[in-house]
Every structure is written in C-alpha cells, then in structure tokens.
Please model this.
Amino acid sequence: MTHVPATPADSPFRSGHAPRDAAPQFVLPLVVRIERSAPPARTDALETAARAVLVLLGDERALGDGEWAEAVRGWEDARIRKVVRRARGAEWRRAEALPGITVFGRSAEVRVFPPVPLDGWPKDLARLQVSGTELDDPEPPAGADPAAPVLWLNPGLTMSAGKSMAQAGHGAQLAWWALSDEARTAWRKAGFPLAVRTAGPAQWAELIGSGLPLVRDAGFTEIAPGPTVVAEGGERFAPLPRS
Model:
C-alpha cells in the first residue's frame, strides 16, 4: 500500500492552503441527538460521529453519479468543514425528515447530511444550536479493540464535545482516504468499527511523528491551528500505512 504522508501538500485539512480557500466553500452538517433526560456518553458520541462521516462517504448516493456526489466533490475540493449541532424533541424530528443518514451508537444518535454551501444551511438545521454540546462519560472508556482503527485525540487540547466530534470525523475521513478500495470495502462491510481515545503525552509525541494520517485544524473555532487527531489502523480493519 502506498504510504500517505501525515499532512500532504494538497490536504484540505492543511492550514493556509490558498487554492482550496478560493474554491466555493461547503460544510458537512452533523446533528447529535441530546435529550435532557438521556444524553449520550461523550466517547460514544465521538465514535458515532466518526462512523457517520464514513457511512456518508461510502454511501452510493455520495459516489459516481449519485444524488449527493456533486455536493461531496465540491466539499472535498475546498476546505473540509464539519459542523456539529444538537437537537432534541421536535427539533430532532424535523432534522430526521431532511435527506441524510442516522447512525446509532450504544447511546448516541448522529444524523449526517450531504454537504451544503457554507451560507446555505436548510432552515431546520440552521436554527439548531452549536454551542452547549457538552457531554460526559459516566465511566472511563474501555481499552480500544486492537483489531479496529483508533482515532487518537491530542491530550494537550480542551475541546467541547461538538468540536471533538467534528475532529473525530476529520480523522476518520483521512483514514478513509489513506486506504485502498479493497480495505475500504472490508471496513464498510464490517460496519466501520473504530474507537476514539485521548493519547497520553508521550504516546502523542510518537504518533505525530509516525507518518500516520494527521489532522491539522485550521483554527477557525475553539482552538489554535495545529494537530488534533492521529488515525491509527487496526490489525484487521482499515490497516493504515506506517512509517
């Protein structure tokens, strides 16, 4: 398998990449269901958001001549923006009525929609809140399955759950791009198993120098520009190139 550098020169995740900035800008909307009485666990929400991005990328409507393909291509030709909003009750039901895909975790529900122009959100999504997406894990997450990919978060950053969900989605997308068609098919058929965990400081230092796919945030919201997520392959699903 061809080695993919951590931050290729043409990566849409690379900060300050002028040609992509000049292209029409799109955003991938994700909506997480957060009911007052039963909010999802934070880690499950992050993992479900990452899988939602992969489900959309692998959907036939997003490929070839599919009905979402043109929007996906336009989005991938510009900066790869993802925005996570929250909904409950009637808000969630209105979001469910729009074209998209709902992905279920153990406790989380995330609906992903085809990309929309940066200033062209559907009104039922535009009215949803971005801020306030704060979630907790009732218990520390278990160790990651060594057979599945792990999206490692930068331990030096403090991000809201919504921001972290978007970053996990970026990491999953870079992992998808780094794979062969055969590996993508196997991962998709397995249901996109993956984990999201926070790396230890020493582990993070090793990861960002490993040559694995690395997300570099542009710094538009919450955090300064810099590395946020490393995507590490599993033993059986989505084996990624290593340095």
